Amino acid sequence: ALNGREWLRRRLEARGVDFLRQGNKFLHIEDYALAQRCLRQQLNRQWPHLLNSFLPMAFPTMSQTIGPHLSYYWTLWQSEWATDLIMDAPATLTATMASLLRHAWITGNSANVLRYLGRPLTAAGKPHRCCNHEVMSRVLDFHDGLRVRHWVDHNSAKVYNEQNVLRIETTINMPGMFRVYRRAQGQPQTARKKLRPLRKGVADIPLRAQVSQEVNNRLMGQLSAFNHKTPLIDLLTPHVRGRTKEGRRVRALDFSGKDRQLLQVISDADFTVCGISNAALRKKLASTAWGSGRTDPQLSARISRHLRLLRDHGIIRKVPNRHRYHLTDNGRQLTTALNAMLSASTEQLLDMAA
Fold first, then answer.
1. What is the torsional sign of CA 169, 173, 179, 181?
2. CA–CA–CA angle 13, 159, 198 (5° rounding)
């Protein structure tokens, strides 16, 4: 087993960087930017060459036993890729951990878990009828922390805390579940990359890290708006009045009426990484009351007008040089609060307001 945090410890010590470590976690690092660069260097290593250097010790009779023309094909049996969020003190994290884990558990429905781990869904955001994956979630108390873990078959994503560290971690045991752009085995560097299954071989370590980080990002995006203390009325008030922007009149948003379904759809976790596009919104809205009765060009035109409206209200922002959008921090808070309000009963709302 190769431990990336042990790799980091040795490099920080070699550079004289002060740190505080407990087990496999760093509770404090004097220079976080340097630590991140050291971790990224792992992805640039020539892993076959590095691992082959151990063969004389592990298999000294290799050439006599299997001949000089055979070599090892190095694979990863299991990989774990973690994103650590280091707080200033354990109390800072403990105060919000119960609510965070409850949010991770409640929002960990089958559709969201499939999204986290890169599985396709229908245009309506539901699992396909032919989907035969085993989806499971579990909450666990351990050591001095709590953990929520979501599985799709033998791959998983989890969030847990220990001391002052919140860790989001992806574990991959079945890499073939993910599709990545790469060349076929043995093709030259000039060959065109195509969408192919992620391999077990160490040649795909950088791609595996990229896939794992995307899973972490999707899970973190879902968790990011769970604990805002701003009252709902303060979130809604700036948007329920008309405004003027650059000499243009911008109408108010109707959260309970004509804009409700659009606002619910743009908060879909499916857009967390790839962003919101007109085409993707057409697929999700075509079968709703918001989009029904319109031809595809008519629905596209309506979505374009409303994307401009949401930009004017500061709910989404445009990705530079692309026809895609992401929720702003304000937009994420607003849509999360709106979804929570619409899914809560009167009794639950009264309990929370008490």
1. positive
2. 80
Task: Give the largest CA-CA distance in the chain.
Answer: 82
SS3 label, residue 26: strand
Per-residue pLDDT of 277-298, as tens digits, reads 999 899 888 888 888 888 999 9
Angle at 145 between CA 141 and CA 146, to 5 degrees: 50
Q: Are the CB atoms for 149 and 116 separated by under 8 Å? A: no
DSSP-assigned letters across all residues of 111-146: HHHHHHTT----TTS---TT----EEEEEEEETTEE
CB atoms within 10 A of CB 323: 13
Cβ proximity of 242 and 249 under 8 Å: yes
**Cα 293 to chain centroid, rounded:** 35
Separation CA 103–CA 288 (nearest Å): 27
Quote the CA–CA distance of 240 and 30 in Å, as a whole number: 46
Going by C-beta distance under 8 Å and a sequence separation of 6 or more, which residues neighbour residue 109? none
Tell me the pLDDT tens digit for each residue of 173-196: 999 999 988 988 888 888 888 889
Q: Give dist(CA 325, CA 278) in Å, integer.
A: 9
Nearest CA-CA partner of 202 in 57, 53, 56, 50:
50
Element (H, E) at 202: none
* Placement of tokens 């073939």 in the chain: 176
- The token pair that represents 278 in the structure block: 């007109």
- pLDDT score of 108: 67
The backbone torsions φ and ψ at residue 60, rounded to the nearest 5 degrees and listed phi first, read -65, -25
Q: Are the C-beta atoms of 42 and 48 separated by less than 8 Å?
A: no
| pTM metric for this prediction | 0.65
> How many Cβ atoms are within 10 Å of 174's Cβ, its own excluded?
15
Q: What's the gap between Cα 288 and its chain centre?
A: 27
